[in-house]
Design a protein that fits this description.
about 300 residues; alpha/beta; 7-stranded mixed β-sheet; 5-stranded mixed β-sheet; 12 strands
């Protein structure tokens, strides 16, 4: 495997980080307990996440996928081909803190570079083919801190929406190995409390897939033509609807403003709770909402 170096001779150790089915608290624990969650998630992982990593224009990147030690045997069997071909390294843990990530990344890469770059990648999302290249360009330019590629796509059903998100979940952190914090030091929206941050504009760099088992993702942004981004997301845009002009105008002037208003209200509520009750308050609220939705689904099913 080749190593990326700048004109000054510095080299990068880049590691992608994915929580696949780690035991978790709050709303996510309720989602993960649902029947079929794991099988659905593997299908999304193989449909979106795995191909997008393998198609990167820069291949000098390693990938750690964290799994629950109590995972069923069939999951390891299903993932084995990706492990054997070197796509990612599975690590089975009951929990993972950011300090554990530093140790794992060091063992995986050998810490031969001068700069560690870590990137969060959820197991149902995808990267544009030049995502790694763009992040590494920023790291090679000497940036130490959090890196956000601010433009991305949201897929819901067969529709795609263009989204601007300056502190999105596809966060990366570039830093020296000494004193490394990693992209898992805190929630992606809170990395700025620990380090400098920068948001890079440009073409869409990531794809979030909104589906029935999402914890917090939802439709955001404006409706767009998926074919415009097929080169950045090979195979990801296949079979998706190309909206006509009427649909684009309706979304721009009717549906889009409504989504933006609701999103601003959610952000205001979240920021207020975060300021008053901290991260624990957000986690308790998310857990309560997830439990309420789950009970509502059970009631609907029982009334049929």
């Amino acid at each position: 495997m080749t190593r990326n170096a700048s004109a000054t001779g510095s080299a990068i150790d880049h590691v992608l980080l994915t929580r696949f089915n780690l035991p978790s608290r709050g709303a996510e624990s309720l989602i993960r307990a649902q029947d079929g969650w794991l099988r659905d998630r593997v299908a999304l992982f193989e449909r979106h996440t795995v191909p997008s990593v393998r198609e990167q224009t820069v291949i000098d990147v390693r990938w750690i996928v964290y799994l629950d030690p109590e995972s069923p045997t069939w999951l390891a069997d299903r993932l084995r081909p990706h492990v054997e071909n070197g796509t990612f390294v599975p690590l089975y843990r009951e929990s993972v803190e950011w300090s554990d990530v530093v140790i794992d990344a060091r063992q995986l890469t050998g810490a031969r570079g001068n700069v560690l770059v870590t990137t969060n990648l959820d197991n149902d999302d995808a990267l544009a083919i030049d995502f790694v290249e763009r992040v590494q360009q920023q790291a090679r330019a000497g940036w130490h801190g959090a890196i956000y590629l601010g433009t991305g796509l949201i897929q819901y059903g067969d529709r795609v929406y263009l989204r601007q998100d300056p502190d999105n979940a596809f966060c990366s952190v570039a830093e020296p190995w000494a004193g490394a914090l990693t992209a898992w030091r805190d929630w992606h929206v809170l990395l700025g409390t620990h380090m400098p941050t920068t948001t890079i504009s440009g073409a869409p760099a990531w794809l979030q897939v909104v589906h029935g088992r999402n914890v917090s993702n939802r439709i955001r942004g404006r409706l767009t033509d998926p074919e415009s981004y097929s080169a950045l997301f090979p195979a990801q845009m296949e079979g998706l609807t190309r909206p006509n002009q009427f649909a684009l105008r309706a979304d721009r002037y009717l549906y889009g403003p409504g989504r933006e208003t609701r999103e601003l209200a959610r952000r205001l509520v979240k920021n207020t709770i975060l300021a008053l009750a901290g991260k624990g308050g957000i986690e308790r609220l998310s857990a309560s909402l997830a439990a309420f939705r789950r009970r509502a689904r059970l009631v609907r099913r029982s009334s049929r």
